[in-house]
Amino acid sequence: MDLGEALMNNPAMTKEALLALSPDALDALERKIAGKYMHRVPWGAVAWALSNLMVWLSLWPLVLFDYLSIWVAFPIAVLNVALSYLPSHEAQHSIIAREGHPLRWLNELVGHLSVIPFAQPYRVLKNTHMEHHAHSNHPELDPDYAVHAKDDWAFLKNSILRRQPAGPAQKAYGDAMARIGKSHMLIDALLFNLVFIGVLFTMAWTGHAIEAALLWWLPRHIAQTYIQYYLSWAPHHPGNRQERYGQTRGFKSKVGNLLSMGMQYHIVHHLYPRIPLSSTPAAFHELKPILEIRGCDVGGWAETP
Amino acid sequence: MQIFNFVKVLFSPIVFGLGFIGPLSAEIITALEIALPIGAPLYWGLLIGGLLGLMAQVRGSWIWVKPS
Q1: According to the model, what pLDDT value does residue A1 have?
Q2: Cis peptide upstream of residue A238 (ω within 30 degrees of 0)
Q3: ipTM
Q4: Please, where are the H alpha helices in A2-103?
Q5: How far apart, in whole angstroms, are the C-alpha atoms of residue A75 and residue A219?
Q6: Which of B7, B23, B62 is opposite residue A205, by nearest beta carbon?
Q7: In angstroms, what separates the C-alpha of A161 from chain B's closest C-alpha?
Q8: Is A205 on the interface with B (CB under 8 A)?
Q9: What's the mean per-residue pLDDT of chain A?
Q10: What is the signed CA dihedral for A170, A173, A175, A178, rounded to 10 degrees?
Q11: How far is B37 from chain A (nearest CA, A)?
Q12: pLDDT, tens only, A22-34
């Protein structure tokens, strides 16, 4: 039995022992650890997707029929829209069920339904996200590249400016879809936008503009900024490395793991996208010694055992 | 091509300004009980929404600052 086999059977991973492994043994060990966290149906994400959508949908009649103050509903709507993306993200990576699995329909259902509050179509999000994974931090090929900014405030300014009518926010996704020959799926985006402005206009001209603004329009803007910050900017900053172990970084968020949407461990997601979000913290901590040997930036986690 | 032009107009800032920002501004004026020198809140709302939409249409930005 070589050292690699020994470690795989009893992985007491001191750095010295890991450094003594052959490249193949280290790869095998890394894959074995990651494999432990895959192939689990993340039922929590399924429940999260459906309950989040139901809560957001229920806010509309509750507010319109005066059962709930709009000022109570507004922060709930912000939370709902901000929480609507991640279950779809699990579906984008076929984490709930891959093609051919009996639960594949559930994967696609969650993918499509959960992003309704976000007013973004699943197929476009999925395809552009796959391009992001394939070309992370590439100035021309990563559809999320424009999110990069030198610091938090520069991110915020950039985020607001990018979504202005002359801003590049939509163009990057449209260009990515054209590049992979899936422009026809942009019809989904057109339909989503039609429904979105259709609802806003109808509500506004029937005397419910403030309700529409505080249940959908403003929550969507706030959630877009929040999601872009934690899912794109923070884990990829400074965004100057494109190699497998340098595309993302670990970081310790001041607001904790829940409020930073689990993105402190985004390294694990880019290396093994089939690991469910709820398992990335455990996978990260188990893989950390290997990630450090690989040259990953584990941020504030370097000091932790 | 005609459909493309229609969609372009439908999603234009000026249509959003008149279709949403206008009535929203009118509702805010009413809710805040702002005393208007002349006309109904909706007229003022449409003026605000129309001007903002026009600015966004011409400058490509709702906040005056242009994206680089």
Answers
A1: 44
A2: yes
A3: 0.95
A4: 3-9, 15-19, 23-36, 43-64, 70-82, 85-92
A5: 8
A6: B23
A7: 5
A8: yes
A9: 93
A10: -130
A11: 23
A12: 999 999 999 999 9
